[in-house]
Design goal:
Elements lengths: L1 E6 L3 H10 L5 E4 L11 E3 L5 E3 L10 H12 L3 E3 L4 E3 L11 E3 L5 H6 L4 E3 L6 E4 L4 E4 L4 E9 L3 H8 L5 H4 L6 E10 L9 E3 L5 E6 L11 E7 L1 H7 L7 H16 L6 E13 L9 E3 L4 E3 L9 H17 L4
Parallel strand pairs: 1-2, 1-11, 2-8, 6-13, 11-18
Antiparallel strand pairs: 3-4, 5-7, 9-10, 10-11, 12-15, 12-16, 13-14, 14-15, 17-18
Helix pairs in contact: 1-8
Bound molecules: flavin-adenine dinucleotide (FAD).
Length: about 325
């Protein structure tokens, strides 16, 4: 039986799996088709891809900054160059924006290179059996001596409630939603903008995928993130009227750029129900040696990938100090 099953291939799952793999046998399980979680890259053909979750890595923590620099040297990550325009004037001007060389799940791929991945395997029930775990999905079952869950807070609580201590169940974590639109724009001219942050009722941020220099096409490709209030209002209903809401966002975006609305085509509208938590939960991770259950994720610490990495590192240190028998 393997030592650890890590549930989730986002940055916290990929980081903890990579660290534990030095000493233990590890497998990753994820319900999605590809790895990366909210750091997801959507390929629409052989050439073109969208980063439709995480937009870029940035670092406040000096250890995370050094880690990103190391990965830039290894050519896993690179700087996202060009004009990043911020009409909200809230963030640090010209702050470094780091992206994957091929896609924003490159880092996850790199971390999980040597680890067995079980994709499209949603875990619905977990059962602790004295000295090991059983993980159940539709038509499959996994066994492991220990498990690490890295889902957003609400999903973790739902799956593991029976085994969680009161202090975890009582954490106040409210993750915000985000509705994201992937767009193609037929316009035979390069737009000299890498990203735009704006004050608008519908649109908060637009990323020009062409500016990442991963592909070269005549058309422009955009990833549009909507505002928190717009996403909150529509997250539970947008699926019923995808075309309508896609057109509403396109109309707003074409007005902002002063371009013909008909030059845009929507590829996909996606609602991230648990996009980020912008407060600190008061804990960095969770490790219960008795139940051989660990939990880490960005939401413990903050809204960004940096928080996912820090939470996973914290959990690894806890397991090292207090290892399972
Ligand atoms: C739209 C959007 C934009 C963002 N932009 C940025 C940004 O610019 N910069 C930044 O630093 N951060 C950004 N973030 C946040 C960043 O993506 C996250 O902080 C980070 O990816 C979280 O990683 P994680 O491993 O903690 O969680 P996740 O990436 O959510 O990983 C959890 C994994 O668990 C899997 N899973 C869930 N339930 C099950 C189940 N029952 N069975 C099996 N698998 C399951 C999921 O498929 C997922 O792969 C953004 C997030 C979103 C949604």
């Amino acid at each position: 039986m393997i030592d650890f099953c890590v549930l989730g291939s986002g940055l916290s799952g990929s980081t903890i799996a990579n660290l534990l793999n030095k000493k233990y046998s590890i497998e990753i399980i994820d319900k999605a088709k590809g790895i990366g979680g909210r750091s997801s890259t959507k390929k629409i053909n052989k050439k073109v891809s969208f980063d439709h979750g995480l937009q870029y890595y940035s670092a406040n923590n000096s250890k995370f900054k050094r880690y990103l620099d190391k990965l830039i040297k290894k050519r896993i990550l690179k700087n996202w160059e060009g004009n990043h325009i911020d009409f909200t004037f809230r963030s640090k001007v010209n702050s470094q924006k780091i992206i994957g060389v091929k896609g924003n799940n490159d880092l996850n791929k790199y971390l999980l290179k040597k680890i067995k991945k079980n994709l499209e395997k949603e875990i619905k029930i977990i059962k602790f059996k004295k000295d090991h775990w059983e993980l159940h999905g539709k038509k499959y079952k996994f066994k492991a001596k220990n498990i690490i869950i890295t889902f957003p807070f609400q999903q973790t609580k739902k799956l593991a409630k029976k085994y969680l201590k009161q202090h975890f169940l009582g954490l106040k974590v409210k993750m915000k939603p985000n509705i994201t639109l992937l767009l193609k724009q037929n316009f035979n001219q390069k737009i000299p903008i890498s990203s735009i942050k704006i004050k608008n009722d519908i649109i908060a941020w637009a990323a020009n995928e062409n500016s990442k220099k991963r592909f070269s096409t005549k058309e422009n490709y955009w990833t549009i993130q909507t505002t928190n209030s717009y996403s909150n209002k529509l997250i539970n209903i947008y699926k019923k009227k995808k075309k309508y809401f896609s057109n509403q966002i396109i109309k707003e975006f074409s007005n902002i750029l002063d371009l013909n609305q008909r030059s845009f085509k929507a590829y996909k509208i996606h609602g991230w129900k648990y996009s980020y938590n912008d407060t600190y939960s008061g804990k960095k991770c969770y490790w219960d040696k008795k139940f051989r259950l660990g939990i880490c994720g960005d939401w413990f610490i903050g809204p960004k990938a940096e928080a996912a990495w820090l939470s996973a590192k914290n959990l690894y240190d806890k397991i090292k100090k207090n290892p399972p028998k």
